[in-house]
Design goal:
Radius of gyration: 17 Å
Number of strands: 5
CATH class: Alpha Beta
Structural class: alpha+beta
Distance between the termini: 12 Å
Order of helices and strands: EHHHHEEEE
Strand order of the largest sheet: 1-3-4-5-2
Length: 138
């Protein structure tokens, strides 16, 4: 798999959005089912003030990684970086959409580092995570 050509990427380009339904079964598989967990015990999550169990934050970062691999391929797998801020919980039953746009292109050795500003939002359009992700282009 070759690196994507840098000249095919423009600042401001929007990445195709990635939409993921968040099912309790996925959260259970990711977290491991255990009592008294805000991730897998619905009653406990309600006692802690949440309407439903919370998805692990790393699930959202995995979806951003998937979007970046679809965009940059090997350039993200071999040279990827990510900085995130979790700002709202993602709950079981939510639908999460990951969006991003190219923020910058900077020379890095023989390659170009492409930085994407991304955000995740739930079905109500509420942002749940924001940050930047970058990878290499040729």
């Amino acid at each position: 798999m070759a690196l994507r050509p840098a000249e095919s990427i423009r600042i401001g380009d929007e990445l195709p959005p990635l939409t993921k339904p968040i099912a309790q079964r996925q959260i259970d598989a990711y977290s491991g089912v255990r009592p008294y967990s805000i991730h897998t015990d619905a009653e406990w999550a309600r006692k802690k003030g949440f309407a439903a169990p919370l998805a692990q934050g790393m699930m959202s970062t995995a979806y951003v990684s998937q979007m970046m691999v679809q965009f940059l391929g090997e350039g993200f797998v071999k040279g990827g970086k990510m900085g995130v801020s979790f700002i709202k919980p993602v709950l079981a039953g939510d639908t999460l959409t990951v969006r991003g746009s190219v923020r910058s292109k900077d020379a890095e050795g023989a390659h170009t580092r492409v930085t994407v500003e991304f955000w995740c939002e739930n079905q109500q359009g509420v942002k749940t995570m924001v940050g930047t992700a970058s990878g290499l282009a040729a």
